[in-house]
């Protein structure tokens, strides 16, 4: 009887542990140990979100802290290609919510928060800020990921 209960407990733990283990492959070590702080500002102009800087430059394959500050009176969704997928988000706090598709983060109106992420490989990518009030008119910018200084 005790062995049956023990087996049932072990089986339950393996089932419960399944989704946690299925979150993706662990990331390789970062290319640099530095975690440079960067700020992204969001505002609304004529009902359309504006994200500054328009060209966001970060080191590639590196852990970064991205502080997001919004003065918009509506929630704004921030997307950056595949940047928010596959375990690249190390931590988020404040007024930020990860959208279900893992494609972006919702920033609450007049919200502020920090994203700690592992950036993708070197290259130029598109990022966008979209108002939840007008999803057909996103503001697009460039995410430029450069090889980290050695």
Low-confidence stretches: 1-23
Helix content, binned percent? 10-25%
Order of helices and strands: HEEEEEEEEEEE
Give the tally of structural domains.
1
**Termini, distance in Å?**
61 Å
Largest pleated sheet? 6 strands, mixed
Mean pLDDT figure: 81
- Name the strands of the widest sheet in spatial order: 3-11-10-5-8-7
CATH class equals Mainly Beta
Task: Using the 3D structure, state the CATH architecture.
Answer: Sandwich
Secondary structure: number of strands:
11
- Can you count the helices? 1
Query: For the CA atoms, what is the radius of gyration?
Result: 19 Å
| Beta-strand percentage range | over 45%
CATH superfamily, by name, is: Cupredoxins -  blue copper proteins
Structural class: mainly beta
Stated plainly, the CATH topology is called Immunoglobulin-like
Shape: globular
Describe this entry's structure for a reader.
This is Anaerobic typically selenocysteine-containing protein. It comes from Methylobacterium jeotgali. Keywords: Signal. Residues 1-22 form the signal peptide. It contains one helix and eleven strands, in the order αβββββββββββ. The chain has 150 residues and is mainly β. Strands 3-11-10-5-8-7 form a six-stranded mixed β-sheet, with no helix packed on it. Strands 2-1-4-9-6 form a five-stranded mixed β-sheet, with no helix packed on it. The radius of gyration is 19 Å and the shape is globular. It starts with a helix and ends with a strand. Residues 1-23 have low confidence and may be disordered.
């Amino acid at each position: 009887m005790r062995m049956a209960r023990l087996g049932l407990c072990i089986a339950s733990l393996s089932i419960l542990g399944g989704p946690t283990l299925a979150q993706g492959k662990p990331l390789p070590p970062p290319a640099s140990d530095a975690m440079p702080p960067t700020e992204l500002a969001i505002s609304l102009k004529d009902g359309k979100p504006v994200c500054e800087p328009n060209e966001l430059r970060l080191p590639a394959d590196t852990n970064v802290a991205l502080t997001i500050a919004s003065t918009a009176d509506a929630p704004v969704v921030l997307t950056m290609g595949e940047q928010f997928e596959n375990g690249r988000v190390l931590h988020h706090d404040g007024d930020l919510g990860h959208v279900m598709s893992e494609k972006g983060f919702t920033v609450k109106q007049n919200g502020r928060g920090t994203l700690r992420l592992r950036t993708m490989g070197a290259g130029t990518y598109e990022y966008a800020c979209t108002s939840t009030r007008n999803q057909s008119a996103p503001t697009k910018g460039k995410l430029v990921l450069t090889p980290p200084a050695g």
